[in-house]
Amino acid sequence: MHTMWKGAISFGLVNIPIKLFAATENKDIKMRYLHEKCHSPVQYEKICPVCEETVDSKEIVKGYEYEPGKFVVVEKEELDELAGVSDKSIEIIDFIQLEEIDPIFYNRSYFIGPGENGIKSFALLKKAMEDTGKIGLAKFTLRSKEHLAAVRVYKNGLVLETIFYPDEVRNIDHVPGLTDDVSLNEKEVDMAKQLIEQLTSPFEPEKYEDEYREAVLELINSKISGDEVKVAKEKPKTNVVDLMEALQASINESKGKETVSKEKKTKETSSQKASGETKAKKKKSSAKKKASS
User: Fold this and answer.
1) Is residue 181, in this structure, part of any structural domain at all?
2) Which of 121, 155, 171, 223 sits in a 20 to 30 Å window from 12, CA-based?
3) How far is CA 76 from each of CA 143, 144, 235, rounded to the nearest angstrom?
4) Does residue 144 sit within a domain?
């Protein structure tokens, strides 16, 4: 993996050299914008509308628009000075329980690896966090932005999750139509809970795939090879409008899927059992032949 950040984790007087690595990757299929007439990639130039000339990247500065059309220029050196030494330190402020952070706060994930001469202290922090069941709430600067982050144990290492500040998470009360004053039918609630129970299963991330991305890749490969592009038919829509009917139909459908899944597992088990019995018979027959000879 490519090291994207070097620094140290500090808590109290302890300082642990570490490296950060991107833990996730975006697998979106990137498309280029082309000129429809000749299929040439469209270029984008930085042009000043007042001077009517192309602006070189060296001539660009950062500015904050405090009123429409009015800007205050902020120099890179000024921003670097504000960041100070914190740009190379992940300072753990508090240790808390993981459950205390709602998932809405999580932003991006980074693997943490030990830096030079930091293997033992890194292992010590991981072990202490593992035994206490705590995670570290930290602050650090990355790409000119101060982040709040959670440092936690992940498998055989540590992971850092950048999290949004409270004022960056919008108030759910501003969502229109939310109310607790809704009369619910007890039977509908029971059926909804029954459906949830039937659809409950262990989380196995490997069974979930980006079907749209796979379809787009198939379309692109078909176009490259010149094959006929086949588009899958849409699933027929049902005319179930009544909530009770919809719940019952969903329960019946989930039962059908569950039965098919059980039958499949039974067949696989029977097949494995038969295969095992066949192997056992072959071994017995082979043993008899050896004994008679």
Assistant:
1) no
2) 155
3) 12, 10, 55
4) yes
- Asked whether the beta carbons of 164 and 105 are under 8 A apart, the reply is yes
Tens of pLDDT along 152-194? 999 999 999 999 999 999 999 988 888 888 888 888 889 889 9
Specify the CATH number for the domain of residue 13. Answer: 2.40.290.10
Query: φ, ψ for residue 164 (rounded to 5)?
Result: -70, 150
Residue 216 confidence (pLDDT): 87
Answer yes or no: pTM beyond 0.85. Answer: no
Provide the residue range defining the domain that includes 103: 5-26+86-168
Interaxial angle between packed helices 186-198 and 243-292, expressed in degrees from 0 to 180 and rounded to the nearest 10 = 20
Q: What is the pLDDT of residue 293?
A: 46
Rounded to whole angstroms, how far apart are CA atoms 107 and 117?
A: 30
Q: How many domains does the chain have?
A: 1
CA distances to 238, 268, 275, 276, 283 from 280, in Å: 51, 18, 9, 6, 5
- DSSP string of the chain? ----EEEEEEETTEEEEEEEEE-----PPP---B-TTT-PBPP---EETTTTEEPPGGG--EEEEEETTEEEEE-HHHHHHHHGGGGGEEEEEEEE-GGGS-GGGEEEEEEEEE-TT-HHHHHHHHHHHHHHT-EEEEEEEETTEEEEEEEEEETTEEEEEEE--GGGSPPGGGSTT--S-----HHHHHHHHHHHHHT-----GGG---HHHHHHHHHHHHHHHTPPP-PPPPPPPP---SHHHHHHHHHHHHHHHHHHHHHHHHHHHHHHHHHHHHHHHHHHHHHHHHHH-
Q: Confidence class of residue 270 from pLDDT cuts 50, 70 and 90?
A: low
Q: What is the dihedral of CA 169, 173, 178, 180, to 10 degrees?
A: 120
In a domain, 114, yes or no: yes
